[in-house]
């Protein structure tokens, strides 16, 4: 029986050199690994993000592919990319999904688990 599944893992980083806290601009990168943990080759077609800052300001982003790619992943293969976002607050979160189509035409969504964007703790 065919299984359709992508596993998504995320690493985040705050970029102080690109941020301007006095102008409420906090820049983060996120590195994502997408692994085809299913049994059928599938292609990532599009993405949908919900980005929320600490003031509960929500921004939704939809688009084709990721960083200009629509990777086709064989079972066991993975694709990694790094992208970024800017928030008006020092903390926020992102959650979303990838819309995927398997070789056999089956359509499915790969959930992107919610992750936190936050300034590293500083000691005074």
TrEMBL record:
Gene3D superfamilies given in the database record: ApaG domain (2.60.40.1470)
Database matches in PROSITE patterns: APAG
One Pfam family hit: DUF525
Any one GO biological process: error-free translesion synthesis
Limits of the ApaG domain: 1-124
InterPro entries on file: ApaG_domain (IPR007474), ApaG_sf (IPR036767), Uncharacterised_ApaG (IPR023065)
PANTHER family for the chain: F-BOX ONLY PROTEIN 3 (PTHR14289), POLYMERASE DELTA-INTERACTING PROTEIN 2 (PTHR14289:SF16)
Identification of the protein by name: Protein ApaG
Organism for this UniProt entry: Pseudoduganella buxea
Name of the gene: apaG
């Amino acid at each position: 029986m065919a299984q359709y599944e992508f596993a998504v893992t995320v690493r985040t980083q705050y970029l102080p050199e690109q941020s301007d806290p006095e102008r409420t601009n906090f820049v983060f990168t996120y590195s994502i690994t997408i692994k085809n943990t299913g049994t059928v080759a599938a292609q990532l077609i599009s993405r949908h993000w919900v980005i929320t800052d600490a003031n509960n300001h929500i921004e939704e982003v939809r688009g084709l592919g990721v960083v200009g790619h629509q990777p086709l992943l064989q079972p066991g293969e993975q694709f990694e990319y790094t992208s970024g976002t800017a928030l008006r607050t020092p903390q926020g979160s992102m959650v979303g999904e990838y819309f995927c189509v398997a070789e056999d035409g089956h359509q499915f969504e790969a959930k992107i688990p919610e992750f936190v964007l936050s300034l590293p703790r500083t000691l005074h």
